[in-house]
């Protein structure tokens, strides 16, 4: 699994985008009008919208973003995963879109295809690959940058039907190089739990839920950024663990630490 993960990361970084890495935060390729950013990271737990994708275990990840001077961009994300009751062991996401500004308001309109190479659905199971479209916004009033996200999928993970996610928050620069980043999000899914016997419809595995997180980050040394995050999910307070993917701990509130290094 680890070998396949790092081979995939190498292919994405070196082949898909055809861009060399460098020791600064961004690499400009003037002849092509491209700016490439590569960010490897290790984290004590991989969370996606407040839910653990590794059952509370560490993850090694890499994100690649190549943006043209016109505002169009492509990118990819690679991580290990571990979903209970499945053979899913790695995730590779592909994204593309367009970034532009309206005055001081910055917007990002794009789409992402979430894939899990090697995953095989059990008999009667459903596909966990899915794609969604998203609008991201940011508006800065120094030292605060307000951010927002609205995402829509016509067929969310597990063939669960329409999925909608909204999130808002801000990043605020503090003294001594610290940045604080609170986020509040809500996930809706058309089909949350297993339908009646005999139905061929897929489902997600949790009720709709709210997630609240608070991150504190700071450059530690040589461009390495350390981030500590605490996450709370509404399912822990209202629905209980029994409605979290068949009584797993993926929905529990938790704390995690991440070390990343943009190139």
Description:
The chain has about 260 residues and is mostly beta strands. The chain has a single domain, classed as monomeric porin ompg (Porin), CATH 2.40.160.40. The protein is about 5% helix and about 50% strand. It has one helix spanning about 1-15; strands spanning about 25-30, 35-45, 45-50, 50, 60-70, 70-80, 90-100, 105-115, 130-140, 145-155, 165-175, 180-190, 210-220, 225-235, 255-260. The strands form two sheets. Strands 2-5-6-7-8-9-10-11-12-13-14-15 form a twelve-stranded antiparallel barrel. A two-stranded antiparallel sheet has the order 3-4. A hairpin with a 2-residue loop joins strand 3 and strand 4 (about 50). The two termini are about 25 Å apart. The relative contact order is 0.15.
Helix fraction bin: under 10%
Strand order of the largest sheet: 2-5-6-7-8-9-10-11-12-13-14-15
Radius of gyration from CA coordinates: 19 Å
Number of helices: 1
Give the N-to-C terminal Cα separation: 25 Å
State the domain count: 1
- What structural category arises from helix and sheet content? mainly beta
Give the overall form: globular
What is the name of the CATH superfamily?
A: monomeric porin ompg
Round the mean pLDDT to the nearest integer and report it. Answer: 88
